[in-house]
Amino acid sequence: MIVDARTYTVKPGQLPAYLKSVEEEGYPLQQKHGFDLAGYFTVETGGLNKVVHYWKWENAKVRQETRAALYADKDWTAYRKGNAERIVEQENRLLAATDVVEPFAFMGNGSDMGFVDERTYTITYPQVPQFIEITKKLAKPIVERAGWQLIGDFTSITGTINQVVHLWYWDSHAQREERRPPPCPTRTGRSTRPPTATGWSCRKTGTSSPPPSRR
After folding, report:
1. Is residue 211 part of a domain?
2. Cα–Cα distance measured from residue 149 to residue 26, given in angstroms and rounded to the nearest whole number
3. Chain segment 153-189, per-residue pLDDT in tens
């Protein structure tokens, strides 16, 4: 399985109208043509006024053919034209799912404050396979015992290569802070947390295929 991870920046003040348009017009058209939505989120940290959405595909060929059929639909053309003034920037990257965890099988515990923490790690070439094996055999059992919930583990196909992307679910920011490891002492005697990778936290929107529970 591959995932099309898309990030759209929306004009300040236009986010509610944009999300309403997606839910009522855009997403039904995508469903009609066979798009499989894993999750649709607004961003809480990092760049603001952004939406992040993950689309599941069997392979790149199916994605290309399905998108071509959607873009041939005159209703989709009208929908895009109606939202053209709301969107500032669009980005996407294709990700390949690893066998560390079944992607998107767990979708939350129903918490109104639940969110997803997306973290991207750039790995030294050619160590991505070793990094994935270490994650699967050593890191994942440890963090699961500590109460962390991994909902997706991917490698980059397009965009910056040699990247690994983790998606972590949390019931709240308070839970995340409670379950993070304590600061690490340094040789100078000061305490600091380990360096973190790039990422952002996202809140789920109302636009999604019905998940087992809200996140």
Report:
1. no
2. 30
3. 999 999 999 999 999 999 999 999 999 877 666 555 5
* pTM for this model (two decimals): 0.84
Contact 4, 63 (CB under 8 A): yes
Q: Is residue 213 part of a domain?
A: no
Place of tokens 């500032």: 88
Tokens at residue 157, please? 């196909």
Q: What is the pLDDT of residues 58-114, one digit of tens each?
A: 999 999 999 999 999 999 999 999 999 999 999 999 999 999 999 999 988 888 899
The verdict on 162 and 66 lying in the same domain is no
Domain, as residue range, for 198 = 97-204
User: In 3D, which of 162, 166, 128, 129 has the Cα closest to residue 5?
Assistant: 166
132 domain residue, yes or no? yes
Of 202, 147, 199, nearest in space to 178 by CA: 147
Can you give the CATH number for the domain in which 46 is found?
A: 3.30.70.100
